[in-house]
Structure formats: structure tokens, C-alpha cells
Amino acid sequence: MEAARDRLVPDVVADGLSVLFCGINPGLMTAATGHHFARPGNRFWPVLHLSGFTPRLMKPSEQGELPSLGLGITNVVARATARADELSAEEYREGGRLLAAKVKRLRPRWLAVVGVTAYRAAFDDRKAVVGPQTRTFGTTRVWVLPNPSGLNAHWTVHSMAEEYGRLRDATA
């Protein structure tokens, strides 16, 4: 796993997606496999299904099917680390700048940042909370979602699915 440190993982994107999900940065399992949210304890894929974004529970290795559903995945910071706390404040700020440019280029309807702490750091918005934001990037609206990491014990799979479902309802 340590060999995957600092690797880059390609985005799963297309122009004009309904929702572009944005993680904090790739973990080592993601970097080793090349599949987003690949760590077994990560709840992204089950929550995506339970919230109605996918018709079935998908595996990380099936991420290439997401654009056909109007969905994509990117990250605030591209560099893989074992833990998000290894990222510097400058990496978050630069990641936010690059993300804003990417979103303006790809024009998804929604940017869904999975992690309120990452959103706050990337966009210098200390008061942001989970839910829709007032910030936009061009015509793209922003929604902050709970981080699906297994380390985020404040949110259960079901409470996360409810919040992701609120975004899903907004896309309908």
C-alpha cells in the first residue's frame, strides 16, 4: 500500500453530468486499485445505491459506468495519502482553485463535495454545513455531503443515504 502514496487517480468525468461527486483526496487503497472509494470500510457505494443514485449496489471497479447515469467522481486534492490530515492547507486551497476551474469546464448541474471539513478548507468557508450551498461555479450549484469514510462515525449509512437522497431529489 505504501507504494501507492502520492499516486494520482484519474477522474471519472464527462461534460454536463447531473452530479460530480468530489472526495477529499484518494486514499492508498484507491491509489493502489485506481478505483475511487475503494477501501472496504468506505460507505460511498452503498450510500449511493441506498439514496437512489444507482439502480444497484456497484463495486468500485464499476466506476466507469457512472457517467452513463449522469454521475462522476473527482477529488479536491489529487495526491494519494493514508489520511486526509496529511494534506496541507495550501494543498486544499490549490485543490479548490483547480476544482473550480474543472467544474466550470465540465459544467455538471451539481458539485457534491463529500466532506464538510474539506469544503471549508478548499473554499475558505468556515461556516459551511452539510446541505446546499449558496456558492456556484458558473451554472453549477454546490451541495456538501457527509464524508462516507468509515471513520466518520457521526453519520450512519442510513442517515447519509437520507442526505444524499436530498441531493438526488434536487436533481430530479
Tell me about this structure.
The protein is of the alpha/beta class and 172 residues long. The chain has a single domain, classed as Uracil-DNA Glycosylase, subunit E. It contains five helices and five strands; from the N terminus they run βααβαβαββα. It has helices at residues 28-33, 44-50, 89-106, 116-123, 157-171, and strands at residues 19-23, 71-75, 110-114, 131-137, 140-145. Helix 2 (44-50) packs across helix 5 (157-171). The longest helix is centred in the middle third of the chain and has 18 residues, at 89-106. 38% of the residues are buried. One of its GO terms (molecular function) is pyrimidine-specific mismatch base pair DNA N-glycosylase activity.
In short, what is this structure?
Helix 2 (44-50) packs across helix 5 (157-171) and helix 3 packs across helix 4 (116-123). The chain is α/β, with parallel strands linked by helices and 172 residues long.
CATH class: Alpha Beta
- Mean of residue pLDDT values: 94
What count of structural domains? Answer: 1
Over the alpha carbons, how many angstroms does the gyration radius reach? 14 Å
CATH superfamily: Uracil-DNA glycosylase-like domain
Q: Decide which structural class fits the backbone.
A: alpha/beta
Spatial order of the strands in the main sheet?
2-1-3-5-4
- CATH architecture name: 3-Layer(aba) Sandwich
Percentage of residues in strands: 15-25%
Per DSSP, the total helix count is 5
Low-confidence sequence ranges:
none
Give the number of DSSP strands.
5
Major sheet attributes: 5 strands, mixed
